[in-house]
Design brief:
Number of domains: 1
Shape: elongated
Structural class: mainly alpha
Largest sheet: none
Order of helices and strands: HHH
Strand content: under 5%
Distance between the termini: 24 Å
Number of strands: 0
């Protein structure tokens, strides 16, 4: 299973036409944005899991 950072890097490369090095630099140089996205993603995943569990 890929990590959040691996998926983010892949998205930047494939959908936003960044080179792998550019993607790594963007992630490294913007820790606040990345950490907020990780927190929001975690909340969304937990919400989805809770909804699926009740089915």
């Amino acid at each position: 299973m890929k990590t959040f950072l691996e998926l983010l890097e892949e998205l930047l490369v494939e959908e936003f036409n960044k080179s792998p090095n550019e993607a790594k630099e963007l992630i490294k140089n913007n820790p606040v944005i990345v950490s907020q996205a990780m927190m929001n993603g975690n909340i969304a995943l937990r919400g989805c899991a809770m909804a699926l569990e009740t089915k």
